[in-house]
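Researcher: If convenient, please comment on what follows.
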Amino acid sequence: MISLAYRDVSNSFGRYLLTGIGLGLLIGVTLTMAGVFRGMVDDGKALLRSAGADIWVVQQNTLGPFAEPSSLPDDIYRGILALEGVSQATNVAYLTLEVSHGSRSVRVMLEGIDADSNRLPLTAGRPVSRSHYELVADERSGFRVGDRIPIHRHEYEVVGLTRGMRSPSGDPMLFLPLKDAQEIQFLKDNDALFRDRRQLQENPRLNPPGNPALLDAVEESLFSNHRVNAVLVQLLPGTNPWQVADEIEKWLRLTAYPRDEMEEILIGQLIAMASKQIGMFLVILTIVSAAIVALTIYSMTQTKLKEIAVLKLIGTRNALISRMILLEAIGLGMIGFLTGKLAVTYWAPLFPKHVVLLPEDTFRALLITLVICVLASIAGIRAALRVPPGSAIGG
C-alpha cells in the first residue's frame, strides 16, 4: 500500500525537515539543561567521595562548610580523636576565589589538604609533598604542570593535575597544603593588621596600664590563622556514624553530619534552587516543543484539506487519514530527537559547566517527544475528520 504520509511529506520535505531540525535544537537544549543538573549532582558527590569522610564536623548550628560559613579551631580534632570508634580526624579548609594566570582569570575552589592523607587520583605530575607553595589543579582550570599561580601573597607551583574535581557550582578545584589554605582564608593583609592593632592599642579596656599580656592575648586571638572550616572524620569498621555524630555534638558542642546527611545538604539544599530553575526551563521548553509540533501538523493539514476530502470521497477510511497525520507528527518528532541528541553530544563538552548525559535521561526525552507528537497531532486529526467529502467537488 502506498504510504500517504510519505507522499504528503515529500511534497513539502524542505519545510518539514527544517521544522524537525528546529525542534531538535529545542530538544538538544532540554537535554543539555538536564545534563547540567546531573553534572551539579555529580560534582557534589565527587567532592564528598574525594574527602572520604564518614562524618563531617562543622561549627555548631551551621550547614557548613558549603551551604554556610563554618569556622573551627584547628586543634579541635584532638578531642574528636579521643572518641571511641574514630580512626582518623583531618582538618580541611575551603575557599572560593578568583585566581589569575597570564591574561586570564579563573574562578576556583581551594581545598587545604593534609599532604600525608592526600589520595587524589592524578592524571599528570605528582601529589603535593611539601608543606608550602605547591598545589594540584583540576584539568578544567586550564593550568598545566609547572605553572606558577599567584594567590594573595605568594606564588604556588602546579605540581600535579587531577580530573573531575569540581565544586557543586562547577568551579574547578585546587588542592594545596592546609597551612597555605588557612593563611589565604584567615590571615589579614598588612594594612588591615596595622589598623586593627592600632584600634586595640587605643582601647583602654584591652590595653590597661601595666598589663601588656592582655593585649598580646587578644592580638594572638584576632590575628592568628589557626582556623579550619571542617574536620573530616573516618571511623573504624563497624562503627555507627550516627552514634559517633551524637557523641561529638554532645561533648564537643559542635555539629556533626554523617556522610548521607551531608550529601542531602549538599545536593538537596545547596543545589535545590538551581534544580527548581532548571525544572521550570524544562517545562517551558516542553510546552514550546509541543506547540511547534502542533502548529506544524495543523498547518500541513490545513493546506491539504481538499486532498483529504478527495480521499474521503473515494472511500478512504478516517482511520487511514488519522494514521497519516499521526505518522507525520511522529516523524517530525524523530527528526527532532535525533538532531537534538546529535547536537548535545557535540556541544556539551564546550559548556563551562559540567554536563552529564545519562542514558535514562535520553530515553525519557525520547518517550516525552513521542507523547508530545501524539498529543500535538490531535488538532490536525480533528481538522481532517471535520472535512466533508462533498467539499472536494464543491469548488
